[in-house]
Design brief:
This protein is mostly helical. Helix content is 47%, strand content 9%. It has four domains: 181 residues, no CATH class; 154 residues, Orthogonal Bundle (hpI Integrase, Chain A), CATH 1.10.443; 143 residues, Intergrase catalytic core (hpI Integrase, Chain A); 91 residues, no CATH class. The strands form five sheets. Strands 5-6-7 form a three-stranded antiparallel beta sheet. It has a three-stranded antiparallel beta sheet with strand order 8-9-10.
Length: 612
Amino acid sequence: MPNSIRAVPSDPDRIPCVLVVNAERRPLFWPTLYLTRSFAIPNAAQTSIEKVGRVLGFIYDWADAKGIDLDYLLLQGNFLSVDQAEDLAHFLKLGRVTQLWRLQQAAKAAKGSGANTSMKLGKLVVKPGSVARISRREAAVRIWWAAKYIEEMLLKRLGSMSLRLTATKELKELGPMVVQRLRDQAPRTSNDGVLDETLEGLPPEVEDRIDTLLHPDHAENPFSTRFLRLRNFLIWRFVFKSTGRRNEVRNIAVRDVDYANCRLSIRVSKTRPRTVAIADDTAEVFHEFVARHWSKLPKEARKRGMLFTTQKGVWLSLDAINLMFRELRRRIPGLPGDLTPHTGRRTWNDRLSEMNDALPIDQRMSPEEEEKVRKRLNGWSAKSQMAAVYTRRSTRRKADALSEAHAKGNLSLIDFTLAWFFVGTGVRPLQAKRMLMRDVIVYDGPSGKEITLCIPLAKGTDQTDQSRWRRRCPTVLADCLLAYLQLPSAAERSPDDPLFNFENPLQIGQRISHRGPARSPAADSPTQRAARARSANDPPPATAEQAGRGVVADSGPDPRRYWLIQGVRWQFPRHADSVGQTSPTDPETLARGYAPTQSWPACVVFAQTITM
């Protein structure tokens, strides 16, 4: 029998416990210890630990098939040989069915009963010579963790070895070579299996169209009964407006939705549990669904507490959620073929980038701040690189738009260079204003002309320190600057003249600030119009020009502020009063976010602000 894993249920605030067990269901000491030490942090993703645990089980399956006592070999014996490392890598590249078949054949050969016979595994019949392989990405991950584990065992042995000095010296030379040889067997994956940065979320108009049609009160809603309309609208909102993964949304219980404060607690998560905001109308739909439909489900279903069930109280499966999106693609013409639950996370991250870009340039989040926000709201760990992927994709889209506009003649070379200067360096308008002609150093490089930039460090307006830091200019920006410096207006300047001829940083910010197309209130979805008109005492809405530019209009010393979040305007004082706080009024706090208490997550305020 093969080795397997056993996950011990634990509280979300505690360290998950995953055991690697043998055929007798007894834990394997060293693999279990390795998992415990490597993931000894609260809120660690149990699914990730289980994946690593399975890889460790595969390693010991290979050793069992070869008749090797792996613990003795690694800690006291001659260690792995290069040939054994290559054979282990080959075993890890096989599908699980083929691995089990080889284990079965090894067991038959050991008993002398003859090998090379067919074996039935559940509904599958594996014939001799058949080989089931996994993806290159999965194989690379397995080999990477196997090398990591063997390297850890090598370090443990070298740290406590009591053998002769010559044996220690030989092991120091052989061990790293074997580990590296194992790593070299990992297939190159390129972008295979990794998030494709070219995959986009839904365009805003498509997202608004689906949101409008899925509203329970819409006449063209593709679902028949009121129960299905309310339930599926909530699934849509939790997936597309609250960064929920498919399995996270499936595991939402009724108690996880805070109707009064418009909060959703995602407890069961692939990565990290978190609390996110939901829109007012989403909370109202939740209230109607629970009061009029969920409360009438069979007692057993209500006792279980899961929010999303069938009309008979059966807990929804993952396939049922997939079916909902397949039905959307079938019943609503013109939807993209790749519309899936995970499209919601890409769409949400695209909207976050757009809201950040709509802010004045001096109030936008830096790339580092933007990554922290993404990690917090998407439930990624601090070491995750997924946030950087979405940030790079946002930068790529802006770069493509700049290049297209310049190629069509809609953007002058000066504006094109200025925009690329901010995209390529991430500096502030004040630093760009202080750049001098001599701060652009042109020299001959291996592939032609290259540029080094000397960028001022100071950010304060009264700062007198003119210290600078040097950085190599990105290739596209270097090409822009070389063309810019050849313009007659730039060629006539002296080394001490400004690089960009603007009177103040505000002019630079206004020159390149994003000004989206004006969006009239009539273009809003019924959900957005209802949110804007939910109170008869509300002041008149911002003009279309203000809404398009994302500016904050001056409406007196005590303006009533609304937050434009996920397409719905939120009245901040409503929530602030409940925690005894007042709304911030300074633009810097508004742009960076405001969180009065821990129960007020920062996700609510990382958005553009509009004063109505």
